[in-house]
Every structure is written in C-alpha cells, then in structure tokens.
Structure prediction request, 415 residues.
Amino acid sequence: MKRLIIKNASELITCKGKSPKHGKDMSDIGLIKNGCVVVEADKIVDVGATDDILKKYDEYDYAVIDAKDKAVLPGFIDSHTHLIFGGYRADEFSWRMRGDNYMSIMERGGGITSTVRATRNTSLEEFVEVGKKRLDKILDMGVTTVEGKSGYGLDYETEIRQLEAMQKLNEIHSVDIVPTFLGPHSVLPEYKGREDFFIDFMINEVLNKVAEKNLAEFADIFCEKNVFSIEQSRKFLTAAKHAGLKLKIHADEMVQLGGTELAVELGCVSADHLLQASDEGIKKLSASNTIATLLPATAFCLKEEYARGRHMIDSGCAVALATDFNPGSCFTNSIPLIIALAALHMNMSIEEIITALTVNAAAAVNRSDTIGSIEIGKKADIIILEYPSINFLPYHATVNIVETVIKNGQIVRGK
Prediction:
C-alpha cells in the first residue's frame, strides 16, 4: 500500500464539508497553520496540525513531502468545459474585436455551427490525442477533476463519438472527466423553425442511446433566446431526468429568459453562466441546492458584464467557478485567469474563490461526498503551491503557482 505524509504546510486549506457551502459559509475554508495530511492508498486518513499528527505515525513508513513555506489545498475542479471538439475559431475572435456580437456571428454560420462542421470531421483517435494534451495543461494548473460536454455534433454519430472520447480519456489520464450530454447546444440552419422536431430527435434518437450506453452522467441544454426556449428546455431536461441523467442548464447568459428559475424548478445540479439572472431567480437559487456556476472568462472574452457573483453570495447562493473552455466564446482553460477575474471583477474573496473551485465545484458535478476537500475518507486529490499563502493566488495575477499535484494519492506533477 502506498503511503504519503505532507507535513509543515504553512497553510493547509481543508474546505471541509460534504455538501455545498452557501453564502457567508463560503468564507469558511478550514485553514490549519503548520498543517499535515496523511494519505494511504488513494484516500486521506488523517488531517491536522503537524505536531499532533506526527505523534501518531512513523515517518519512516511513508513517503514524506515537507511543505514548509508552502500552501496545501484540495485539487481544483473545473465544473464546466467543452473539452472535446474539432477545429478552432480564431477568426471569429477578431470579428468580435471589431464589433460583431456572438449572436450575429452564429446567425451567419459561424459560432457553434462552425465548430460542428469541424467536429463531425474529427475521428475518435484525434479527439483522444488532442484531449490528452488539453488535460495535461489543466493538470499542470492543479485541476484534478473536470466536467466535459458533448454538443458539437448535433447528430447521433458525433455526439456519441465525443462522449466515447471522454470515456477513453478517463481510462488513460490522471484527470477524472465527468461527462455531460449537451445535444441541444445550438440550432443548425436546417432546423430553424423546427426546433421542436430537433428536441424530439435529440430525446428519441440520441439521449436514450446515451443513457443506454452509460456514456454521460449529466444532460445539459442551451436555454437562450433564438436557441431553445423555456418550454423546449423543460421538455428535454425532464426526459433526461426520466432517463436517469442528472441535470445542468446553460441559463440566462445573454437574455433574462427565466432559465435560472427553471433550473430550480427541475432540481438541476447546477445552473451555469447566469449573467442575466433575475433577482427572483437568484432568490430561488439561494433557497435551493442548485449550484450557481459562474464563468467569468466567458464574460471577459465576450466583453460582457460579469455575473453578479458578489450579490449571489450575499443572497445565500452556493457559487462555483469554472472556465467554460470552448473553441468559440472562451478559448481558455486558465484557472489562474478565473481566480484573477473573480477577485478583481466579481469582488469575491480568495476564500470564496477557493470554495468555488473546490467543494462547491465538486457539488456541481455531484462529487462532494468524495472530492473537493481535504478530510478523512475523501480521495487524496491535493495541490501544493510554491508560495506560503493562498493570498498569492490572486496576487500573482494570472500566473500558475501550483508546484505539485497529487491525484488519488500519487504525485502526478511536480515533486
């Protein structure tokens, strides 16, 4: 059995808890000065102050990491990405810089439709090859679990192939992928005016096969003006729930449509984006277990106002943060950027940011009972910073300061 002790951490951030933290509780990160963690196999077996812990264990029976002058945290969880896709859209970024908005680009055949064409022409082997490279990069930044969505096929074959690629990557890569079926991600030109037919196709021809093949844990839909309505979103997500999938929703990103309220109504595990979430929607979120997953890098790249993260936390919501890594509106998987934007533009404290990237992000992928904190019985997904305090995360703005990554009790990055 492989054993590990991490001792003398200047700050050990436990984020202790097996359920999401709401409101002011997001500031409680369970900081232990001069902390110590004991790992056996892939589980955490003891946590506390170094002097107290080392009285109970013989260091000679363990591999030992001396984390003196370093901060130790749970592994980060990126709970909203579009990890597997073909092609790129760098030209569209330039179009936006010159003033074209996201919806106008979509309407002339760009946007998601452009990626669909490239993704349909990408093989399973190519998905896996590029997926490994992307996972390597996020692992370097301390991400030990990531959610990945399909949604760039909008047909049976490609949607299945995207999910199969994630299944394969789960077998061969250290980072755990939580797969999400996002079949209703956009409306192709041939389905304009026939969105109801497309939803029926996704339910009857794709969703049920995804569930039968056990290729996804979640289902998601882009609930937005000129994409899928509240009624269409309710129909699809209800069918997904009946098929045994847990629910997510792209809600109120560009127009205040009521997707936030729908997420609470249906018991979605998370409601994501929420730039235009109404006061009533936020009030309902705060009284629910639905996680508000905010994606500040998307607002940054689209030059939009940020979601009201400060107001949501003050209202009692459970907030998570994620990258929304995708080929169009947000081609970045940078956790350091997310931290900087949340601190500087969403007025979140570093404690709230860490909670949003750990235990609350774990809840957003239905994993808060096994990951997202450093406590006895949870998986040993741990990161060590090269600096002594978590305050260096926003201070060393947009720079990766993760020195060591431990996944399932094994050092997979660093020393």
